[in-house]
Amino acid sequence: MLVHLHVKNLALIEDIEVEFGSGLNILTGETGAGKSILLGSMQLILGSRSARDMIRSGASYALVELLFQVENKRAEETLLNLGIQLEDGQVLLTRKILDGRSISKINGETCTVSQMKAAASCLLDIHGQHEHQSLLYQDKQLEILDSYGKSEIDPLKEKVREAYGEYRNCLRELKSLDMDEEQRNRERAFLEFEIKEIESADLKNGEDEELESLYRKLDNGKKILDTMQAVHSLTGYDSGQGAGESVGSAYRELTRITEFDPQLESLAGTLQEIDGLLNDFNREVSSYVEEMSFDDETFYETEKRLDLINGLKAKYGQSIEEIRKYGEVQQQKLDKLNRYEECYQNALAQVEKSRQKLDRISHELSKVRKQYSTALTEKIIEGLKDLNFLDVEFRIAFRDQKEYSANGYDDIEYEISTNPGESLKPLGKIVSGGELSRIMLALKAILADRDQIETLIFDEIDTGISGRTAQKVSEKMAVIGGCHQVLCITHLPQIAAMADIHFEIEKHQKGTETITEIHPLDKEESVRELARLLGGAEITEAVLQNAREMKELAQVHKNARLK
Questions:
Q1: Which 3 state secondary structure label does DSSP give 511?
Q2: Among 65, 138, 337, 421, which residue has the least CB neighbours within 10 Å?
């Protein structure tokens, strides 16, 4: 579960640290107090995009830290598979936002945003204000079903993806062969031309590099010759100013005085070695100059060969190896054209074989999905009845898509009837925003139990609900809080009353700045916050009494659940 949150320099937040507990953690506050900023800080850990304007005015960076105590084996195994070692059963996720970039760390070690997201997704799940609208999309509906049965469905989905890839490759191969005789003749002529052009060049590996080196040498021949002659003169013995002559003279002078000091003999020996090396160097330079030849014919042939190779590179590849490989591929295409009928029939057979394989695996996937849809439907109906859908009917309708996809051929749609006598219809044609919100709440509870996600975060799950329905939602939240850590941002007193821990988020002035702070409420402070939610600006004694009664009734309900 999430045990500690630290946010620094993020929007209106200067520096806050919050200790969360188990059960139902409720967060309330005035509109605009900064509840969405707090939620946004957690979404940053889940991989949402960061921006420079997130950083608090005047600060150089923003920081978000989430510390989790991992208490279930599945999450621990997932983290270990990601290469994350727990420290005393804990994992620390950190994201620092700088100007134009961000730095993510897990247990102090730098990681990518995707690695952070993968780690966080097995530790917490966030339901945003408008996420329930995604239920109207059939892709999301299928995703939820697949998540429910992921242990069996995911391996089959992977097999379907592989089979679909094979099927698409076979279709592409068949399409490449689908041409009339005139097209084949044109293609054959074109292939023969390219193959002949490459083969006639008689290319050799590394030839281009050798020619380029030779070309540079030939193209700069005069410059090389003039320079080497100058070097020969500067290091030689023919002129009075050559280095060889100078070193020789120095050696002769030094030998005249070595008899006066034995230490000078080693210096003389060193100078003699230098003289010898310089003499050898000078002879090699002289030999190089004598052997140099820059005939026009060699230059012309080198240039011509390079032009040929570079022309082939422009057409067929960036290296000789790539050109030759291209020629081999074109030869294979030509061979297929020369055996057109045979290859075409083989391609037809491969398409049919891959289609049958895809159909078989897609059928297996669909069968498993239907099995899990039955169990999921029962769970959803049970959850919806807990949320004041009294006479609800629910069904996951299956239809076959016209075409295969990497996800199989299932086209599903959630259908619901919320009133007796009404026929089942798609969600989008029946439910309101408040009903969608409750359906999503039921689904989140089901999937969280399935995946063993310890921490669930709900941002204003109370959208569009009130009265008895609000009470039912609060009771459901209490039930979920009995087996998960729940963080819930709400405006409804019925939900807030169920809090195991109640936090208030408030905004106030600090000098010339506006800052957001969060702090836990004791029992009496919680009652007063409930009174604010009930009565608005003016909190009378009657409102306070009502809040106390609501808190007491909530406690009675939770105690009954525990029994």
A1: coil
A2: 421
d(CA 148, CA 144): 6
61: its two tokens: 């960076």
Strands 109-111 and 2-10: unpaired
User: Could you give the CA distance from residue 107 to residue 193 in angstroms, rounded to a whole number?
Assistant: 61
Q: Match 């999309």 to its residue by tokens.
A: 137
CATH number of the domain enclosing 81: 3.40.50.300
Q: Are 100 and 144 in contact (CB under 8 A)?
A: no
- Give the other-Cβ count within 10 Å of 290's Cβ: 8
Q: What count of other Cβ atoms lies within 10 Å of the Cβ of residue 539?
A: 16
DSSP string covering 475-501: HHHHHHHHHSEEEEE---HHHHTT-SE
The C-alpha atoms of residue 162 and residue 416 are separated, in whole angstroms, by: 34
Residue 392 located in a structural domain = no
What are 551's two structure tokens? 């808190």
pLDDT, residue 358, reads 95
Phi-psi category of residue 23: left, alpha or beta, with phi > 0 → left and psi -120 to 50 → alpha: left
Distance, CA of 446 to CA of 376 (rounded, Å): 8
Q: What count of Cα atoms within 13 Å lies in the side-chain half-sphere of residue 242?
A: 19
Structurally, the chain folds into a number of domains equal to: 1
Whole-number pLDDT of residue 306: 85
DSSP element (H, E) containing 420? none
Q: Is 385 left (phi over 0), alpha (psi -120 to 50) or beta?
A: alpha
d(CA 417, CA 439): 12
Q: Residues 505, 532: contact at Cβ < 8 Å?
A: no
How many C-beta atoms lie closer than 10 Å to residue 260's C-beta? 7
What are the structure tokens assigned to 66, written together? 């989430």
Distance of CA 402 to the CA centre of its chain: 32
Query: Beta strands of 60-181 (E only): which ranges?
Result: 62-69, 90-98, 101-106, 109-111, 124-127
Low-confidence residues in the chain, pLDDT < 50: none
Residues in Cβ contact with 134 at an 8 Å cutoff, skipping those fewer than 6 apart: 140
CA–CA gap between residue 291 and residue 284 (Å, rounded):
11
What is the domain range of residue 44? 1-123+453-523
pLDDT confidence of residue 537: 64
Is 465 a member of any domain? Answer: yes
Report the Cα–Cα distance between both ends of the chain, in Å, rounded. 24
Structure tokens, 22? 């188990």
Residue from 506, 486, 508 nearest 498 by CA: 486
Taking the C-alpha atoms of residue 521 and residue 528, their distance in angstroms, rounded to an integer, is 10
Is 287 exposed, middle or buried (CB count within 10 Å of its CB: 0-12, 13-18, 19+)? exposed
DSSP 55: B
Q: How many CB atoms lie within 10 A of CB 56?
A: 18
**Half-sphere exposure for 544 (CA within 13 Å, toward CB):** 8
Burial class (CB in 10 A: 0-12, 13-18, 19+), 200: exposed
Q: Is residue 8 part of a domain?
A: yes
Instruction: Give the separation between CA 317 and CA 329, rounded to whole angstroms.
Output: 12
Residue 513 within any structural domain of the chain: yes
